[in-house]
Amino acid sequence: MPKIIKDNAIIDSPLAVVQPAEASLACSNSLLPLAFYLAHQTSLAGRADIGVWLQADEAVEDLAPYLSDLTVIALDLPQFGDGRAYSSAALLRQRYGFTGEIRAVGDVRRDQLEQMQRCGFTAYALAPGQDEQACLQGLAGFTFNYQASVDKPQPLFRRRA
Questions:
Q1: Is the dihedral angle over the CA atoms 67, 72, 76, 82 positive or is it negative?
Q2: What confidence tens digit (pLDDT) does each residue in 33-91 have?
Q3: What is the pTM of this model?
Q4: What confidence score (pLDDT) does residue 159 get?
Q5: Do residues 108 and 130 make contact, with C-beta atoms less than 8 angstroms apart?
Q6: 73 — phi, psi (to 5°)?
Q7: Per DSSP, what are the bridge partners of residue 75?
Q8: Nearest residue to 100 via CA among 69, 65, 77, 55
């Protein structure tokens, strides 16, 4: 099982990303590709052993009608400088009110974790070669943020008042 950071701990992930060519209705404990999930949504509805993953160029809006059926949505970061997943996470939280796990997958590095958290991510599958302990410690490195965000909707000056 792959390791992830979730709830301030390094844990074995109960779900693994399934590539499009390997997706099937028999998959369990899996993060299924968006296109497969949408094509088979009726058959997959209500299953707690699956989630969905989106590539950076796929729209979270396509999942809106099915969010109540999902507990995990993974957003792919294809490379370090690609910020589309940050916007997708914020949309899931702010526009659609998604309360489940939003997992970062792909090229996920320590430098990004705090900003991902502020956008609504709650779990992180790190890129190969990343030091899991250092990444976990990096999440605790910021005690105050001045700007409003998904995780703290009030700016610091309003929280102090």
A1: positive
A2: 999 999 999 999 889 999 999 999 999 999 999 999 999 999 999 998 888 999 999 99
A3: 0.89
A4: 65
A5: yes
A6: -130, 125
A7: 54, 104
A8: 69
Tokens of 31: 């993060």
pLDDT tens per residue, range 116-142: 998 999 999 999 999 999 988 887 766
Residue pair 29/17 in contact (Cβ under 8 Å)? The answer is no
Q: What is the pLDDT of residue 81?
A: 83
- Say which CATH topology domain 3-160 has: Rossmann fold (3.40.50)
Would you list the domain boundaries of the chain? 3-160
